[in-house]
What does this fold into?
Amino acid sequence: MKNSSHTSPPKLFSHLYIERSVLDHPQTQMIRAKFGESQVIVIDHYKEVFNRPSQSFAAQSRSKKLILARKEGKFLHEGSQYSDGFDHKQFFYASSVMGCLYDCDYCYLQGLYPSANTVLFVNLEEAFVQLLPYLGEDTLVATSYDTDTLAIESLTHQTREWLAFAEDHKHLHLEIRTKSANIKSLKSIAPNPRVTLAWTLSPQEIIDVYEHATPSFEKRLSAVEEAIALGWKVRLCVDPVIYTEHFDSLYPKLIDQIFETIDPNAIEHLTLGSFRMSQNHLRALKKLRRSDVAFYPYAVRDEMVTYPERIENTILETLLSKALVYLPQERIRTWQRQL
Amino acid sequence: MIYIIAALDAEARALVDYYQLKRDSALPYTLYTNERIILLVSGMGKSNALMAVSALLGWKIPKNTDILINIGICGAPAAYEIGEALLIHQIQDETRRYYPDILYTHSLRESPLTCVDEAQSALHDAPVDMESSAIFQAASRFFKLHQMAFVKIVSDHFAPETVSKEGVVELIRSNLDALDEVCSALEHVQSPDTLYTEDEYKEVERLKSYFTKAQGSALDDALNYFRLKHPTMPLPAYPDIPDSKRERKRALEELIAHLTA
It folds into this structure.
């Protein structure tokens, strides 16, 4: 080849695959205007792109495309055993986006989806209709379960729509979990005491190695600080903890760093949990051969992989004893497998 | 290795000259090769393309860093200029659609393409060719979607009778830079998914042969963990494998503990 010049990766969402049925949806129009230079490819159904055989998740991660679609069927699903429902009577997660802008080596989405591209279901209004029958009693909805909704808020405005909906329904609680530093999107919205913003925080050394394309620890912490100042209810999550060399210094130091900046009384909870995943998802992760996280000799119990009990206990004891310096036990939540 | 698929001798002619390819008689198809390129002339139409590409890839199974490019002429609506090179992002064949992944920047115009059964004089909304869907179907058994590209040069505005052999040679010749650009970009986004050198791989397989399948799989995981965690470090020296089953099991446990420490 005479032309050997290396090309830079394309811009984010260089290609928009749009279902014919949502071409005229207002959100589609807004996104098309925002990504005016992107190629627009009209499709009949998102699965013909998202579920193609022979995709490379790893290669696509370096050049993500956006698929705009209409969700058919259920937006809401029962919360899983891997997550905390915070004792709410009903716990759902909403699946309005598939795929995530961030690229974390330990993320189960790599095992769940055949594609690293993002599917945005633009008909969020139908999620609200589906949720209405449940809102006679206390209900928690996690809005950023299969994605990081705040990371793409400027594109989707879905968080804004969820918050407006929650404002009108007094039994509805929302959890918006994120690694994003995008607090700007929330500045014009009045905080709702039934909405918890939950930030995942990791040592910068772990972010550098395992949490690709995510904001730095410093930026996340600034966003937390700002959210608290704006009056939002905030939960912090040191979860999942990755057991690695210097674990016993990295994570205690992280907790110190957090509470040097954040007043412990200003947060609702601190959640601690070690890495865990369904065995099926881990199998898929191994096939990608992208990260050492996939190949640790985990223990398997009831189709769930976790660190061996001794290590899992070490992780929780180490973090818990440090967290107790700042918070009473009742405001620390831990994830541990059921024995 | 770059696998180039063209349907016609006239499409291949300029490529043979440009890349200095030599005729290769390894298959009952027209084939030209050099040390980096295999050029297959599949013949016209979907059936010919499907059979020829399947034969080629079954004979020379591609590696995960190899790429495949289908280059050829197409008819197109008047909005496309004669001689323009298009990079195809959607291939439609009746109700089926195929999507190569374009994970690189390039300067070509992107376009959908309709794959039809015969040369078209009737107007279509999109450019048309006669092989792409079959090439995609056969090749996607061997290549990932980001390893393939479909480059089509507009030869006519649905007036196939105006296309001559000499014209086709010239159309391809005048777009060799575009082909080079796509090849280079496509090669750049490929990355090997093997974690070991050939020698390391042999040694790992030898070591695994002492163990049961389940033990070998656990060892594989531990070695992958070590290599991904410490990409620049050589794999540690392997211990002598004891004869006794019990001692062998213990040696394996020690090795795994060492690799994943």
